[in-house]
Records
---
Amino acid sequence: MTTRGRCWTFGDNIPTDRLVKTKYVVEPMEVIVQHVLEDLNPRFPLEVAAGDVVVAGKHFGQSSGRAIAVKALRATGIGAVVAETFARTFYRNAFEVGLPVLELPGVTGLVSDGDVLSVDVAAGHFRNETTGVERQVLPPDAFLLDMLEAGGLIALARSRPELFEDRGAQR
Amino acid sequence: MNMVEKILARASGRRSVEPGDVVVAEVDLLIMHDLSGYLTSRVFDKQVGGEVRYPERVAMVFDHHFSPPTEDAAAMLQANREWARRTGTHLLDCGNGNIHHAVVQRGLVRPGGIVVGSDSHTPVHGAIGAFAVALGNDSHAGTVLPHGKAWFRVPETVRVELVGTPPPGTTARDVALWLVGRIGEGGLIYAAVEFAGPYVKELGFWDRWLFPLLCVDLGAKCSFVEPDEVTEAFVAGLPAGAADRYERSDGGEASTVLRFDVGEVAPQVACPPTVGNLADVPDVAGRPVQWAELGGHAGGRLEDFRAAAAVLRGRRVHPGVRFNLVPSSRAVFTRALQEGLVLALHEAGATWFPPSTGSNQAYNMGAMAAGEAMISTHARNFPGRNGSPESSMYLAAAPTVAASAVTGTITDARELR
């Protein structure tokens, strides 16, 4: 699950409203993807390439829990998002739609916009190929990695429905 | 175990759970508004298919549109209506109010249950003693609709204890905003936040409501106030009547306890670009506003209209300001009529709108041109949510909003002459 590509840096507390503006949420993905993060970096939707890595600060993807924000980011072709911390709705949505994300405290001090990075989320491994800096963190929970492996939650529920069958819950 | 852990254990068929466990639990209520309902139902129909397992546990609320302004919006609402009819889910159509207020007033949220929704402020239902979490559309389409279940990681609990009595003129909304500044946006990521302490205990239900509401800004997963006699009295007055079950802590300790003295909190304003960018009102007084609004998840309460009527008694809305009043539910509008607030605020120059979520995201009202500013009780102030990214949204309590509507600039209600 390794991706390698150009690093695009963003700041702290980026809301999903700025990933996909409300006026685009019900547009077709071909339209939405042309506007991802455009207010914060107009070059991003125009120049982002398959395998690129978004690096952000604290609490990335806060605000609305719209899964469309994560789906749009995935649709740009990026290989991973690495952030100091994530908003939990964004983090959850990322695994549920199959976008690899890695929480790496201190990452904003390890990169400059345009560096070449390689990231292996399943292994918790990060490397800045431009500077040679490497970091190793604990990989995400196995249940989350199962979801990524399956291609998202809907695919996981289809291939392993027993996970979501009755287990004697009391209502 | 505490309230959250007990609910998750019961709903996942376990004797007990601990923070860090991943469980699959039975969901009691899924709430979706007009936009998330549209996206989720499409994902469900296209990628999952089959029957909705428990349609009586699903509610769609049209709160971003009190009436569709375009043909596209009308078509979206019509598709949602058709889906709700076909699947048998609850539908609260245009005019029922803000999603969270409307489902509470309808009696659909029950203490001790699990509530999920796409709206990021869904954790507000912790105010009523539910475990309430915002999930993404794929959880709803992939597991909640077809199986009635969702996966959860059991969160660590952080108890926020509030002590002291704020000075006159400082409301619960001011204290809640101030806390976002003190704890910091993203300061409690993944936590279950319990609001406790003598200050919280003495608040009425709709003032307590403002605290679990803000947990999303702290990055928390969910939030709650331990159910007590205030909760029980409130629930007993809802259409579904008194609850037969509450989950309460049996003494399990929170992993972290944060204590704050609210005794010197001044009225607050959250300035753009984020909710955590707080100032005491006197420090930002004088900035011009062209719009003021009582509405949204954090406003449109009876308490807000009463506060505004008190500020506007003997005064008028400034000619350069449009002051929007958006009841959070039909029940609130009924009470506002009965108390004479509707006439008083209308005659003072404010404009009533139908029960809805008002200018939240500017779906059918509340867009601003570049350079315009609004002060409101809304929950969000990110640039671009209300029209131009060059417009400004300030978040405050109802007295500050009303006082600013009178003068046309951000105004401390305590200083109004």
---
Amino acid sequence: MRMKRIGAMLLACTLLGATLASCTGAESSGGATTAASTTTAAAEGGSEATPAEPAAEGGGTVHIWATGSDNVRQIFETLINEFNTNSEYAGQYTAVLNFQPSGTGQAAMTDGLAAAYQAGQENTEYDLVDFSGDDLSKIIALVGEDSFLPLDDTMIPNRGNVAAKSSVAPDRVQPYRGTTVILAYDSEKVPEPPKTLDELVAWMEANPGRFVYNVPGTGGAGDSFVRTSVYNYLPEEAITSADEQWVEQWDEGFEFLKSINPYMYSSGGSIVYPNKNQGSLDLLNQGEIDMCPNWADMVLSQRASGELRESIKITQIDPSFTGSLQTLAIPTIGSNPEGAAAFINFMITPEAQQIMVQQMAAIPLIDTSSMDMSGYEDLQGLDVSNFRIMSIGNLGTTFNERWDNEIAPLASIPE
Amino acid sequence: MSEKKIMLELKDMTKKYPNGDGVEHIGLQVNEGEIVTLLGPSGCGKSTILRTVGGFLDVTSGDIEINGRSIIHLPPEKRPTAMVFQSYNLWPHMNVYENLAYGLKLRKMPAEEQKTRITEMLDMVGIPGMEKKFPSQLSGGQQQRVAIARSLLLKPELLLLDEPFSALDAKIRHQMREELKKIQQNLGITVLFVTHDQEEAMAISHRIVVMNKGKIDQIGSPADIYDNPGTLHVASFIGEMNFIESEGKTIAIRPEDITVLPEGQGDLEGEVRTIMLLGHYVVLTVQQEENVIKCNIDRAQSETLQVGDRVSLKLGKHTVFDRAQE
Amino acid sequence: MSKRIKQLVVAYGMVLPAFLTVMLTVAYPIALAVVRSFRDQSTGAFTFSNYTFFFTTAAQFKNLVYTLFVVVMTVAIAIFVAYLLALYLRFSHSRISRTIGALYLLPRFVPAMCAVYAMITIIRDSGLINRIGLLFGKDIHLGLMYHAQGLIVMNLWFNIPFAAMMITAGLGAIPDSIIEGARDVGAGRFKVLTSMILPLSVKDVIIAATFVWMTNVGSFTTPYLMGGNSPKMLGIALFDQFNKYLSYNRAAALSVIMFLICAVSAGVYIYSNLKDTEWEMQ
């Protein structure tokens, strides 16, 4: 009896301790992420950035660096295979993928590259690097524009076909695909979707409970919706600035978010904002709402795979939500600039663009008239030259906290 | 006995368990003021009968009456019986007083009266002043006294005891038997008692019901059962018994009913195997053909005998069974 | 003598790895968290503000009250239902009770994520129940998703089997003869329950309640997938602090607050043991 009791008490204490330990454990690991990954990345950069072997006959090997989720790895593998076997460069160059899955230390690739620059290495395997908008801003901030080769039409003949320009280092990076937050809607319920933000607000007021955006900080679609809503009241340059001064000007935008709160999705008698992009998309697919902001590629690829109903369509409103361009850049410390340029040129051919459309619902950056867009016709309506790119740096944290404090409580259950 | 009132009557009662075990066609009458013991080896069904009377088991068929009234449809708490269990089963979270008062409270007895009766009862069962103790602070014998007191306080028409003393050590057990018998005499209460201990049954009972494999073998007074066992099983179960195989028959005879005589003077011839002194008497074993026969003799006679001596046995009171019977 | 030393070395040698693991993975982080919780994040100076934040900020205080509400309801309902279930398993010997007895622990083996998603597809406003309702022309909106009631329903799924398991073990330790004794002296079923079974199993109930309480105070998966935006369970509020707002010191303070809430139940449990009823003394 007594032993049993002591045992139970010990167990209770252990559980108690574990509760706290797990809280703090998670917390400290959260805090340590950046520092830890920097060191490992630096180490990796140092060891991997050994001088490339002398170029083989023809053009040699092109090392391509990319990071992201698994669909990014898949698309690169498909495209590299296509480049090596079927493109005009087949036999001339051999592309090899160096992929770092995201989530294992998100900044690993850019940090590794930056470390290689800072160590003064040359002739490394960083022949060609794939950047998201955020990663590009970050690497440019770390190592400067000059660390990448200027690109021109002689190196990359197809470059002229691409209208989209990166907002950062436009002459040194090549955009090759885009994605943007759009308005996803159920065409059965909303035959004529709104074209402007004002029309959208009018529709919300007329159809309370049928629209929602996901909680900012849990997915980019919700982030984009609330940030553009607020930054629509601010000068154009604010959207790409991390300057604290803009924080003071958020009030009007937050008042707007408060004013539309009553028309959001409600369940059980109170307003509810779902977590994650997928959360609002599920509500749309289940017919609990008729419209929500979401990522174009996410909606279209899920629709193509049958996860979403056919009646779910996408549209862009004016002023538009934010999007991002995926770019390729050739580091000056690479060892095969010709091969890298060839790969870039390949990526903006109709063949490669079509693969990206069909496989990941990416927005193509070239004229689509010669491409098979079946199933993805919605993409053609999206004007990539009109992309709003947002980068407000650490203000994002402050922004989300303010949303949590001012908007989320409005949704609370009246108790 | 015939003028006595019948308190409990089991009429062709059968209780079958799903696995086929149980008791069959039990007919039994217990008179007012009588102690009747159900005796038998474990698994013979004696506890089953007690539990059907107490209301803890349903009967499959037949009837049970108390004072002429059928009780088989009453739950335990509505039956005029009280049961004392083998494991004492006092309620561990209540002290002695609370254990005793529990049933009285349920009967809405005034607190003052409860107190008087409990004090008296503790005196009667020989553990005065134990009110504040918890069961875990009592010895086994004390616990069983409390358990008996708890049952008696409710003035049941019939007291059921399920091997109440089997968990106690020998000395306490003898003491408790005597006290139970004394209390029973004082109160004139009717008792149905279950035990597997034939000595206990002999000591305590007015009548004994010997059971075997779910059936009643024999009902009778202790002397009756001892002297005239109705079956081979009864004969073997009650007291010491020699079974002598002879010409297809089995002769059952108790060691004290055999007289040991010089060779040629008795009924059976044999040779002394062992001589054991057991206090005031001696147990002699004699090899007679296949049989080993136990005889009780006095010490004086034992001194005239030695192992290996040829002796003759004279059979006194005995019973003869057909071998085919068992 | 040397044999004794050998035995000591072996004994301590066997305890040491567990001891070190506990010190390293439990005691050390706890100490770090407590120290951190009293420091200002930017200056490192001693402060109580990390704590006062959670009690003076309306939204944060609401989270606290909300968490307590969900946890108290979960504990109360889970224990009540588990007790009924345990009573049934203990005292019914029917085929149904044996079947339930064999199956009732199964939910514990379903991965939390799967269970939560499965529950969502059933109870969401457009879920299975709604669809079944539509077949009969009724548009049922349970309104459970994103609300405390939904969280409680999900918590019950996880905790009833667990609590029932502990209580069933406790009830199993009560011999039949105790109940029969009570029936014999005239107690009806209800009286047997209140005067015998409840007092004899109250400790197991307290243990079960303690564990249900502790595991639910810090729950994350369920409120993350099923909870609303405001108020939030403390587990999510904690996640926000370190993951969204990068406020590690506040997160540490909230950890300590959650620890103390858990400690309430541990306190109740230890008190109930120390108070030690006389009858258990051997």
